[in-house]
Amino acid sequence: MSRIITAYEGPLAISETANDQTLIYSGENTYEARRLAELSKTWAEGLASPGDPGTRSAKSWAGAAQLSAGTAEAFVGPTYGSTQDALDQTNDGDFFAIQTEGLVSIYRNEANTAVLQRTVATSDFLGSPQGAMAVTVANGFTVQQNLTDLQADDMRRIDLREYRAGVGIGDETADTDALKAAFADAAALVGGQNGSAAPIYRNKIWLPKGNILLGESLKSTGNFAVFFEGQGRDATRIHIPDGEYLLDSDHRSFGISFQNLQTRGGKGVFRRSGLAPAIGGASGGIGLLVDGCAFYDYTECALGSSSNDDPFWRISRSKFTGSVGSKAIMLPTGGGHDIRSNWINQYKYGICLRNGYDVLIDGNRFGGLTNGPVRTDIWIIPTSNSSGSGLKISRNYHGNENDSPEDRSVLIAAADTSSNADHATNPTWEAYEESNAAVDSSYIVGQVSFHDNLHALDSGRSRGLIYSRTTNLRSFTWQDKIFGAAPYIFEFDNALFTSFDKNNRWAQTNTVTVDSDVFAGAAPSTDAVCNLPGFGQIDSPSGRMSGQADIPLAAAPFAADCTTLLDSTTSIASLLTVSGANITLGQSDAVNGRDAAAVNLTAGSGSVRLPLDLTNAQEGRLCHLEIDLAQALTQSLPGVYIRIGEGVSSYFKSVYVPLNPTWRTIHVPFVLPNAQASTFRVVICAHSSDFASGVSDTFHVGRIFVYQAQHRVSSLQVPGCSTNNDSTSKTLHVRSSKPTQVWDSPLLQDCSVSFSTAAAYPGARFRIVRGPGASGNHALLLGDGPFKTLDLPGSWCEVEYDGTSWLSVGAGFL
Which class would CATH give 721-813? Predict the structure, then answer.
């Protein structure tokens, strides 16, 4: 059978095995043979393949081979001092080499021109520091030097199996001896007894899979660093005997870590019993690192330190489950701790911070696997130092499983510092806050933030979420979520405190926001924010906690429930008293009046004082101070303090206000901690660094109004209608006269009605009505002039203050 060979197949289709019946169309195959011949010629002689410009042609491969051969010839041939010398001594097409500072450049003589082909480095060059840097090898050493060092003993990790002398893991004596020997070798390579730090190389103890039986604690004999690394918290398991620790030290360290391992038993995993600072030396250390571990069945404290300063703990992704009756999870001291993403179970105290500052506690799960003693998740121990500064507690989960009504999310109370015993095992340590009946006078200095924590209170709470035995708390902010019921958010020990001290300047620096998204439960979650009135600025934008007298509501149009404590808007002169200052009255004020005063301080401690009238004041009720302040034209202070209390140095509220060239009204909310004090006043004074006599010593003060109300008032006029007016002339005042005035009895004489500009503000209005009963031939004469006369019963007029004077803006008949 014959078949046709197409032009597409071409002569390649003709083979020795082709059927003799194959029919060849010679013209068609001659064309194809010619085309393929051209392609073959191009592939052989061209620089690139004709079918794909991105592939190599036969000529290009030949050229590469020639270049390689030429390079090899140049290496073994003579090396010339310059390209001109080489060109003079070589022929067209020859390769030659030029060496300069360890680099060899290969050239080709092309028509008596040196054409660079490649540059290579000699072994001497690569073996020098300069060559090592050229190929980006660290430390200025060659590749070989670094490889040699990596193979040296000082750079290798310590493999526990190397200390087992052929015995498998799981024998207590052998495991203990191996761990002690490995720890001794690791500790010996860091620093000396003077605390100087040496380079840390061979300090990591690699722990294999399996059960490792420890017979006694590893104990330090001097300054050290050690890093334990297992193969996973369920793979490497260390068993600690009763009364012992994995690591027990009373020396300084330059770094300790536990990673990817599990322990069971013992008093704890790590204890530092020394009182001296835990980290020393010129380069400091990394503190304590725990990551990816699980610690079970310890009887005292998993991680504890008695040092007065043991900073930089990094505890993450680990599980803590003590035995029933265990005391604590971890006790770090000092600052710089980062504790996040841990599961914390079975404890009396969870995280205990002594002298804690710059600490992050984030994303931890606090809970009880079984019913147990009253639990405290976080214990903040106040001191006279910087305790609490920069403490952020966020996104933690408190409560739920097996919780108790007596549990506390946060405890703020002193710990026993009278003994030098280990804080993790001293029996008075955990009992002190319950047995000590004295008022704690220590401090949490501020910037403590509670944000987005969830308190899941299945059993409810009989104590506040945050329970404190000191009232010296400053700059706390709270915005957490609550599911369940608790009596308070902040609770101060009611056996020690009945109210804040009248000169406690700390309490009202705190901020609590209780908004609609804060409550995860459907039912109201707390009865009150705090059991003591006067705890900071409390805000409930949703109105959920509006039953509390110290929580602001939305602004109201009138001051219906307003109790005036100070009103200098009618006569500032009668209320101002000065100390170390001179005042000039009759200055222009914010409403184009002349009721302001210029205050010139004659001493840095000078002040202006205005007394508060507490006759009708209520303890614990929200108050508002509104004051107009401005810079002086010359010698102005840049800002002033507004303080509320007994004096310049005895106060419970203090706000620093920068001054502007133009008037502005400052609003300062506060809560009266003790309404029985008769000497509370508003004090305006200077910061000591701002005052300079004759240079920076003057400011302007205008209207001052202090009142009690749950809302700011948008109109300071007393609402309502006055209907008991008679034929006696009268003067109406914005702050004290009701906005609607009615005369509805016979007029026995002309009656003048005047309007005071004192304390008046643009937009203030009065409506004057002559009712049907105000008969007679006499008139109501309104304002200066008068500007309006009401002659007939049933007539009315409305007047408004425009900032300068009172004007008639409407009139008519009933």
Answer: mainly beta
